[in-house]
């Protein structure tokens, strides 16, 4: 599993323009500037003007849902669909390309779609593997995904561990390497835990794992010194701020930050949204949480903004006490522990000539998903 790209994020004032730059580094030396992240606004404008077109330009890992897509989600709920099949439709087997497309694009896109309106997803992935005239089915144990910004990392971890298990198994039992396997079909099982009806309870607001492991933030309902009315005012101001001519009041002395995803490197990072206080130790500071379509979801208080913004060094190695695996990335280590080192991954031998018949199927539109997903319904229409 590849390490995260080493990066630096800076603002520069060029004449009367403020420029945001994302710079890539390798071995401590600057290699290039990211062209997709660069943003220029007049120096007098608020920081959030740098990011206001992110969703439209697909720079925030958000998706767009129209009325047709919402009808598909409703059909998935009504038919209790939790299993989705993806097949490689090419004439000749292309296992590497199929897995690459599925891991980077198809599966994350499906999970982002299914995460709309949910508190969390519980997802597992299974590969149908042909090797030496045998067919086997390997399936991961379920992994909880509580923030849509964790989907890419979670899929990366599941795919990596599945392929490692398959490689070890076929080498031990079939005496062949992973390259001898053909994978042209996979199944993704997803349980959706939807938000409670409005007014019943407040939706949870979990940080992405990359920032959870920093232990520098907390929810609004824990340990805050400010009155609920002030915090409510802050929330309401943010929700209503998109109304023309209604900026956040200058009397509200807070610092706000938001998440952003680089379209090139897929890095998740934090950027300033509104800075009203120079004294970062005493100015109330919050991170804005948005859902998978870019809608406001809530605020989390940042107790230690320096720690929250600091890029994790990768010179420390974390060892799993259960399986002695080593990690330089705390997010990968956290996901590895969540999935219990892969101990509950399963493998079944299948009849290679068997044909699976499913009476109730819901083909998902390729125009939206780009891939030929089929949902398997557990309820009759």
Number of DSSP E strands: 19
Average of pLDDT = 84
N-to-C SSE string, H for helix and E for strand: EEEEHEHEEEHEHEHEEEEHEEHEEHE
Radius of gyration: 23 Å
- How many DSSP H or I helices? 8
Structural class: alpha+beta
Helix percentage: 10-25%
End-to-end Cα distance, whole Å, is 42 Å
Beta-strand residue fraction = 25-35%
Q: Strand count, sense and closure of the main sheet? A: 8 strands, antiparallel
Shape type: globular
Protein described:
The chain is built from eight helices and 19 strands. The chain has 381 residues and is an alpha+beta fold. The relative contact order is 0.17.
Summarize the structure.
With about 375 residues, the chain is an alpha+beta fold.
Topology summary:
Elements: E1 6-14, E2 17-26, E3 29-33, E4 39-42, H1 67-78, E5 83-87, H2 95-115, E6 118-131, E7 134-139, E8 143-145, H3 151-173, E9 182-194, H4 209-212, E10 217-219, H5 228-240, E11 255-261, E12 268-275, E13 285-290, E14 296-302, H6 305-309, E15 318-319, E16 326-327, H7 330-338, E17 346-350, E18 361-363, H8 366-369, E19 373-376
Helix pairs in contact: 2-3
């Amino acid at each position: 599993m590849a390490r995260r790209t080493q990066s630096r994020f800076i603002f520069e004032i060029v004449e009367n323009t403020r420029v945001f730059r994302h710079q890539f580094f390798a071995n401590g030396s600057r290699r290039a500037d990211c062209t997709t992240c660069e943003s220029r606004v007049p120096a007098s404008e608020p920081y959030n003007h740098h990011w206001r077109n992110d969703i439209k330009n697909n720079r925030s890992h958000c998706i767009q849902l129209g009325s047709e897509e919402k009808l598909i989600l409703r059909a998935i709920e009504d038919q209790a669909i939790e299993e989705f099949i993806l097949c490689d439709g090419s004439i000749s087997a292309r296992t590497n390309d199929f897995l690459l497309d599925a891991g980077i694009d198809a599966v994350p896109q499906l999970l982002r779609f299914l995460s709309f309106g949910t508190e969390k997803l519980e997802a597992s992935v299974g590969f149908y593997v042909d090797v030496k005239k045998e067919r086997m089915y390997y399936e991961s144990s379920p992994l909880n995904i509580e923030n849509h910004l964790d989907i890419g990392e979670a899929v990366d971890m599941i795919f990596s561990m599945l392929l490692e298990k398959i490689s070890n198994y076929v080498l031990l039992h079939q005496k062949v390497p992973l390259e001898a396997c053909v994978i042209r079909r996979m199944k993704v099982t997803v349980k959706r835990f939807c938000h409670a009806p409005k007014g019943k309870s407040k939706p949870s607001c979990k940080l992405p794992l990359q920032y959870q492991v920093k232990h520098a933030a907390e929810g609004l309902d824990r340990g805050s010194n400010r009155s609920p009315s002030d915090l409510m005012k802050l929330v309401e101001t943010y929700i209503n701020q998109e109304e023309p001519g209604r900026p956040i009041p200058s009397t509200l002395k807070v610092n706000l930050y938001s998440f952003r995803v680089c379209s090139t490197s897929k890095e998740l990072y934090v950027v300033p949204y509104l800075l009203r206080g120079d004294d970062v130790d005493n100015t109330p500071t919050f991170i804005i949480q948005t859902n998978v379509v870019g809608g406001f979801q809530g605020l989390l208080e940042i107790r230690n903004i320096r720690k929250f913004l600091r890029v994790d060094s990768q010179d420390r190695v974390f060892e799993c006490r259960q399986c002695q695996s080593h990690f330089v990335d705390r997010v990968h280590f956290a996901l590895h522990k969540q999935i219990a080192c892969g101990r509950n991954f399963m493998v079944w031998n299948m009849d290679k000539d068997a044909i699976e018949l499913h009476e109730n199927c819901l083909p998902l539109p390729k125009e939206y998903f780009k891939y030929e997903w089929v949902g398997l319904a557990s309820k009759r229409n």
